[in-house]
UniProtKB/TrEMBL annotation:
Domain UBA: 652-693, 727-767
The entry's keywords: Autophagy, Cytoplasm, Hydrolase, Isopeptide bond, Metal-binding, Phosphoprotein, Protease, Repeat, Thiol protease, Ubl conjugation, Ubl conjugation pathway, Zinc, Zinc-finger
GO cellular component: cytoplasm
Name used for this protein in its record: Ubiquitin carboxyl-terminal hydrolase
Subcellular location: Cytoplasm
EC number: 3.4.19.12
Principal place of residence: cytoplasm
Pfam families: UBA, UCH, zf-UBP, zf-UBP_var
Its biological purpose: Deubiquitinating enzyme that removes conjugated ubiquitin from specific proteins to regulate different cellular processes.
UniProt domain USP: residue ranges: 336-861
EC class: hydrolase
């Protein structure tokens, strides 16, 4: 008890027992096989707990496992010990003390502090002239909590000494997130200096791009040799395309491409197909100018000043951040800020809004014990664990405490300063959710709306059992397409998560003021006089809503009534209303000169929003439907050799296209059939097949192909039934069962991961609820010999329909000229008043700028 008390501050713990060198050696002998020296590539976490935001600065310090190099706060280290049996941890603690005063009352002269060896951020609230830091490290052996002070070269075995030194000298695993080192992580392409560019007269417009091979309009890449615009590959977050940019490289050998939509004054996303990685192109401006994109002009505005140098008296920077107003800081549960990691405010703003929603609070923070107990061996790589950690950090109040009262300061400082941590650093969360994503993994500013959709996709893919908090955003959109020549119509439905409202600039109510301001501004610039006070366009919200509901032309519309291309118009309505409605104002565009532009407008967003009039009505009396005929499949010449007129092997089905369709809410087997019967031509062509065949009675039946004897092996999905004839290889099952898992768990995991051993192990740890369903799995296996397949009816997209009456509770605002620069701030209504979340600063809002927002969050209210 005395040894435990020395570490945990329990009564009687005044010190640790002294041990001779032989005693220490004997103590470590049983644990020597578990102590490792960090190798190249090992991530050593010594600054942050895997389950909380405890650090060596925290009162209990931090424990680093000497085998996995994961770190845990005092509250969570016992869990890791019980789960893994790892006994040896390095305990790290930073002490902050007031400096010794000299005879005259001032602090003694500065000396080099040799007692600091931890690579930690210092507390900005403390004056370094008044306080000094001292770092402490020791080994702790569980479960008896023996302590061995470090350094202890004479008494520790050589291996332990080397391991301790390696841990203490290791660099942060987040180094490449630091703003001053990120760009250095990207190599300069070896093809940039001598890149060949064809003089073919290609000029790229500032908008309206689409893939030259499949008509996709997102994730488009401009080849810097011939100016081809082609789609990229499909990413795990459902963004992307059919990989035509890569195919073009394989056909032509042109190595470099730049992603359209990422070009900004600071550069753009450039990828080298030959080098197979993102690269830097030091001549990017010249290469883009070859195709009519004046990147150098994008470095400045019309008057030659940078965006941040333009400071009108009522700039959005001042209004949105409520500059000039004395704001009262807020502390406690729900009022915790997020520190900016360098252009991470887009993430912070979205997460503050997300965790103000009760469904997300319950799904993650409400299930904290279960999620943490069943987390995988490496919780830093588990989405649900990191979401729960972030939610608890924001909502618990542990990291948002008011300053110590003035009368207590002297008492505290006489012994040791115990700093109050205000705000948390989301490094671990950002590193995980941005992993493998080309934009979010960089340190550049990103679009908050794109990150919101990326996060929703991660929530969908990592849902906890049957609970999926992102259901509150999901709604169905009814699209009515009419052939202008025959007047016949077609109704379809799709899933969406936010409402995008256009800015109706033509409806501005202060047009005369805008014209006068523009003339005055140009005259002031010409004469180098101070700019006049900014005048914003005032746009009625009703005009934006009207623009949303108006018909729009359909590009390349193919009329099944005419069996030919024709003019078509499309209108969109809500087939269901979500529990929470997210509204995005489409403020960003590109000018004719390729300069990113933002509509700096004021829109009178309502606190109460009624969109019941936008409810879909379906096929109306007197309307005639377009014939149910699919358009002919046009096979590109370079793809004809890939598409045969005979059946393809089921193992060759493009699983990325299957998952892209499944994320839209269609049954998995239907998605596999769609990709199969369209010859792996991509998700867009397969989507057309689904629309045509979705009413057929066998739409969701397993794919059956002559010559392959029975249902296609699809790999199980946690979203649907498992094919019983998909028996995993017994040798892989045996490997998993030898680790102590049940056979039914092994079978279920392998089916869900297409018999991939490594992914199956991760699946087991992230789906503990399937252990509880063992009886069901055993029953399924007993029926396997009879080749009985579940005949469950396909489930449609999960929606929570209800009234279309909403109330505003949060909004995210953007400052700057482009989503790739500037700053984001979030306002949330809590306990009857508005609160501003500006990175780590959380204050009561005095003048919430509801008219300048970019994304608005509404919750449904009863009519």
């Amino acid at each position: 008890m005395q040894r435990r008390g020395a570490l945990f501050g329990m009564p009687g713990g005044s010190g640790s027992r002294k041990m001779a060198a032989g005693d220490i050696g004997e103590l470590l002998v049983p644990h020597m096989p578990t102590i490792r020296v960090p190798r190249s590539g090992d991530r050593v976490y010594k600054n942050e707990c895997a389950f909380s935001y405890d650090s060596p600065n925290s009162e209990g310090g931090l424990y680093v496992c000497m085998n996995t190099f994961l770190a845990f706060g005092r509250e969570h280290v016992e869990r890791h010990f019980r789960k893994t049996g790892q006994s040896v941890y390095m305990h790290l603690k930073r002490h902050v003390r007031e400096k010794v005063r000299g005879a005259s009352g001032g602090a003694l002269p500065k000396r080099r502090n040799s007692k600091i060896f931890l690579d930690l951020d210092t507390d900005d609230d403390l004056n370094s002239d008044d306080y000094e830091y001292e770092d402490e490290a020791k080994l702790v052996i569980f479960p008896d909590h023996y302590e061995i002070a470090l350094p202890n070269i004479e008494e520790l075995p050589a291996l332990v000494t080397i391991a301790c030194d390696a841990v203490l000298s290791s660099k942060s695993p987040y180094r490449k997130q630091d703003p001053d080192t990120w760009e250095n992580e990207l190599p300069v392409s070896k093809y940039a200096n001598n890149l060949t560019q064809l003089d073919n007269g290609v000029r790229i417009p500032p908008s309206g791009w689409k893939c030259a091979r499949c008509d996709l309009r997102e994730n488009l890449w401009l080849n810097l040799t011939d100016g081809s615009v082609l789609c990229g590959k499909w990413f795990f977050d459902s963004s992307g395309g059919n990989g035509h940019a890569l195919e073009h490289y394989r056909d032509m050998g042109y190595p470099l491409a730049v992603k359209l939509g990422t070009i900004s004054p600071d550069g753009a996303d450039v990828y080298s197909f030959q080098e197979e990685e993102p690269v830097l192109d030091p001549h990017l401006a010249k290469h883009l100018a070859h195709f009519g994109i004046d990147m150098l002009h994008m470095h400045g505005t019309e008057n030659g000043l940078r965006d941040n140098d333009i400071k009108p008296r009522v700039s959005e920077w001042e209004v949105i951040q409520e500059t000039g107003t004395k704001l009262k800081p807020m502390y406690g549960p729900g009022y915790t800020g997020l520190k900016n990691l360098g252009n991470s405010c887009y993430l912070s703003s979205v997460m503050q809004a997300i965790f103000s929603i009760p469904e997300f609070q319950r799904a993650y923070v409400g299930n904290l014990p279960r999620i943490f107990d069943y987390s995988p061996l490496d919780p830093t790589q588990d989405f649900n664990t990191q979401m729960t950690k972030l939610g608890h950090g924001l909502l618990s109040g542990q990291y948002s405490k008011p300053p110590v009262k003035s009368e207590l300061i002297e008492q505290v400082m006489k012994e040791e300063h115990k700093p109050q941590q205000n705000g948390i650093s989301p490094r671990m969360f950002k590193a995980f959710v941005s992993k493998s994503h080309p934009e979010f993994s960089s340190n550049r500013q990103q679009d908050a709306q794109e990150f919101f959709l990326h996060l929703v996709n991660l929530v969908e893919r990592n849902r906890i059992g049957s609970e999926n908090p992102s259901d509150v955003f999901r709604f169905l959109v009814e699209e009515r397409i009419q052939c202008c020549q025959t007047r016949k119509v077609r109704y379809t439905e799709r899933v969406d998560y936010l409402m995008q409202l256009p800015v109706a600039m033509e409806a501005a109510t202060n047009k005369d003021e805008l014209i006068a301001y523009e003339l005055t501004r140009r005259e002031a610039e010409a004469n180098r006089r101070p700019l006049p006070e900014l005048v914003r366009a005032k746009i009625p919200f009703s005009a934006c809503l009207q623009a949303f509901s108006e018909p729009e032309n359909v590009d390349d519309f193919w009329s099944s009534a005419l069996q030919a291309k024709s003019a078509g118009v499309k209108t969109s309505r809500f087939a269901s209303f979500p529990e929470y409605l997210v509204v995005q104002i489409k403020k960003f565009t590109f000018g004719l000169d390729w300069v990113p532009k933002k509509f700096d407008v004021s829109i009178d967003m309502p606190d109460l929003l009624d969109i019941n009039h936008l409810r879909a009505r379906g096929l109306q009396p007197g309307e005639e439907e377009l014939p149910d005929i699919s358009p002919p499949i046009v096979i590109p010449d370079d793809s004809k050799d890939r598409l045969m007129n005979q059946l393809i092997d089921p193992s060759d089905i493009d699983e990325s296209s299957v998952m892209q369709l499944a994320e839209m809410g269609f049954p998995l087997e239907a998605c596999r059939k769609a990709v199969y019967f369209t010859g792996n031509m991509g998700a867009e062509v397969a989507f057309n097949w689904i629309i045509v065949h979705m009413e057929e009675p066998d739409f969701a039946e397993p794919l059956t192909m002559p010559g392959y004897g029975g249902a296609a092996s699809a790999g199980a999905s946690v979203f649907g039934a498992t094919g019983l004839d998909n028996q995993p290889p017994e040798e892989i099952v045996a490997i998993i069962t030898s680790m102590g898992f049940h056979r039914n768990q092994a079978v279920q995991a392998l089916r869900a991961t297409n018999n991939n051993l490594e992914r199956a192990l991760d699946w087991i740890f992230s789906h503990p609820e399937f252990e509880e369903d063992s009886d069901f799995v055993i029953e399924m296996e007993n029926n396997a010999n009879a080749n009985i397949i579940s005949e469950a009816k396909p489930e449609g997209p999960r929606v929570k329909d209800g009234s279309g009456m909403y109330e505003l509770f949060a909004f995210i605002s953007h400052m700057g000229t482009s989503t790739m620069s500037g700053h984001y701030v979030c306002h949330i209504k809590k306990e009857g008043r508005w609160v501003i979340y500006n990175d780590h600063r959380v204050c009561a809002s005095e003048r919430p700028p509801k008219d300048l927002g970019y994304m608005y969050f509404y919750h449904r209210v009863p009519r």
